[in-house]
Amino acid sequence: MEAPANHRLILEHLKRKIPRRLAILVNSCVHCGLCSDSCHYYLAENKSRFIPAFRTDRLSSLFRRYHTWLGRLIPFWTGARGVEELSLKEFTDAVFGECTMCGRCSINCSVGLDIGFLIREARKILVELNQVPRSLQSTVDKAVTTGNNMAIKEEELTGTIQWLEEELQQEVGDPRAKIPLNKAGARVLYTLNPREPKFFPLSIIAIAKIFYAAGENWTLSSTNFDATNYAYYSGDDQAARIIARRLVDEAEKLGVNILAVTECGHAYRSIRWESPNWLGKRFGFKVKSILELIADYLSEGRIRVDPSANSAPVTLHDPCNLVRYGGVVEVQRHILRQAVSNFVEMHPNRENNYCCGGGGGLLSMSEYAELRLKAGKAKVEQIRQTGAKVVAAPCHNCIDQLMELNKKYKLGIEARTIGEIVADALILPSGRVNPSTDSPSKKG
Amino acid sequence: MPFIEFKGKKVEVNEEGFLIKAEDWSEELAKVLAEAEGIDELTEDHWKVINYIRQYYLDHDIAPMVRLLCKETRFPLRYIYQLFTSGPARGACKLAGLPKPDGCV
């Protein structure tokens, strides 16, 4: 039995804050069951509690009990449940630990319900009840208090960028190659996932190399460089606004035309699609995925690639927030068809692709790690069937999950960003492809 | 809370095998954590990375940037990824007894 104060808060939330869109959602599920086979959790575990309709019924049964006349009069008739029947632990596990908000159930839903949206609304209630899993909350707190989700200090970032700039100069054989910081009037402001400068900087060098070859006028910010927004995952709109505003202010301050987002699904979705609503304004600059810029460079002939540099079979993972929810679907295929010599689609693909299991903030939540790795089984099978040796994954979050799946299920693959794949195939202005140097990033 | 049995005692770890209390760490325990990571034997180079991360964490309460790790150990970045196939965070930091870093790892 939960404390009555929690029950009161849940009921108040349902009464005051339930948006029209959600009210329609909770009233419209016809329990057809089509969503069951669409969910990677249900495919992996085959338990009824992993059926998306069952998951969302935890919230909609409450709504029916208090906000529909039939549910109020004859609760058992409509499957309505009183708040006293709700276990907060079970509710938290269902909305944080057992759903990546990947949205695959929504496109397979007979009445088109946006179940990911409903789960996030449920997460919002749990924010008010201080029930956000510890590790996810800690990531949001770090971002709000330090300016990025890994608490990287400005001097640490600039030190890393200088180091990477030296690497870049060696790789392209041009001492004038730069990674410009805080450059006002640049055309493009490029933003990062903090795990890149902290632990995995090869993806930054790769993009810098592409910008160099394209002759792009670009910059990084030394303070507001974090493209991620974990408050999107936690359901905390107040924190989400604080984090989003930093990027928008930085782009406006530097006067850029384009804010380009690193290969990170939820970051793209947050700043491209959610932030104008969070902040209640239109932006004076465009938000683009870095993939859109790379595809433009290829189409305009600003960069050239040699696919023979990438001869191993490559397949492509579709990150949910970039593809299904973000609308960036074809450009990555356009790029890969030119940059690799053997591109194999996995099936299903594009909007119908399966989640890797690491989305929805799950990667950061150790609490649910065991289930997260089980839920990746659908992805593992898809990859196995392609016979690919490289999985291109335009999302750093997905890459980490794929690396873990690779280890657990012994897939024998390498997960890489599209930027890294393109950089390896790049024909530089000096005509050299992927020069081998003795620079520190190369094998010892 | 999950735990691992070590020298007849229970050492608390999180669901992904990161130590809960950094002070529980010892070289022998690192060897046990390495086995779980699929590293059969910790070489001198592994120890160089682990010891640097460990000392940096004790001084700064956070994991070092990978740039510092490369600079101090004089190892190329790709060599560090080879030593710790789960990466600097899930691999090296775990073996050095750090709590799981926040963020996309």
- Global geometry of chain B: globular
Structural class of chain B: mainly alpha
**Strand line-up in the sheet with most strands of chain B:** 1-2
Helix content of chain B: 40-55%
Q: What name does the CATH topology of chain B carry? A: Arc Repressor Mutant, subunit A
Low-pLDDT stretches of chain B: none
What do these coordinates show?
The complex is a heterodimer of chains A (444) and B (105). Chain A folds into 2 domains: 4-131, Orthogonal Bundle (Fumarate Reductase Iron-sulfur Protein, Chain B, domain 2); 145-427, no CATH class. Chain A has helices at residues 4-16, 20-28, 40-45, 52-67, 69-73, 75-78, 88-97, 104-107, 115-128, 134-146, 154-172, 195-198, 202-214, 230-234, 237-254, 265-279, 290-299, 331-339, 369-374, 377-386, 396-409, 418-425, and strands spanning 188-191, 218-219, 258-261, 286-289, 304-305, 314-316, 343-344, 390-392, 414-416, 426-427. In chain A, the strands form 3 sheets. A 4-stranded parallel sheet of chain A has the order 2-1-3-4. Chain A has a 4-stranded parallel sheet with strand order 7-6-8-9, sandwiched between helices. In chain A, strands 5-10 form a two-stranded antiparallel sheet. With 444 residues, chain A is α/β, with parallel strands linked by helices. Chain A is globular. By secondary structure, chain B is mainly α. Chain B has a single domain (3-95), classed as DsrC protein, C-terminal domain (Arc Repressor Mutant, subunit A, Orthogonal Bundle), CATH 1.10.10.370. Chain B is built from 5 helices and 2 strands; from the N terminus they run E-E-H-H-H-H-H. Chain B has helices at residues 27-36, 44-60, 66-73, 77-83, 87-95, and strands at 3-6, 9-12. Chain B has a two-stranded antiparallel sheet. In chain B, strand 1 and strand 2 form a beta hairpin. The longest helix of chain B is centred in the middle third of the chain and has 17 residues, at 44-60. Chain B is globular, with a radius of gyration of 13 Å. The interface between A and B is large, with 42 and 30 residues.
